[in-house]
Amino acid sequence: MSPLRSQLLFRLHITLQPALDLGVTPLGQRRIVPVAGGTFDGPRLRGAVLPQAGADYLLMRSDMVFQQDVRLILQTDDGELIFMSYRGVRRATPEVAGRLARGEPVDASQYYLRTAPFFETAAPRHAWINSIVAIGVGERLPDAVVYHVFEIL
Q1: CATH tag, 6-152
Q2: Is the pTM of this model over 0.90?
Q3: E strand or H helix at 97, and its extent?
């Protein structure tokens, strides 16, 4: 079997609105973080993250791992729409998690933030994105999140 290979699909910068804290539900601490907008830029795709059209349905589980369930609408620079959804996890030590929660800067090497995005579009020019597998490596900022999204070849 050959080793896993990838190539950069795009860098995604998502600006976030303040979280809506639902409290502790039967599944864990539930927060919904609305998307305020953003940008994405890569070798084959670039454009904007549409504001008010997405959110992260974040769940802090009993093991203190954050489970992500995110839906976004990307608008390419040629005006086409791409639905992007991903699930992922963020885990950190209690000290690092506390710093992130307080909005302090934390180097991404101090925690694990990975996602598995999928894409959906009706745009013929971008139809290739409907049938790829991708992985995102993320960094949490005080009011944003940045991912480097890689297509798995």
Answers
A1: 2.40.160.20
A2: yes
A3: helix 94-101
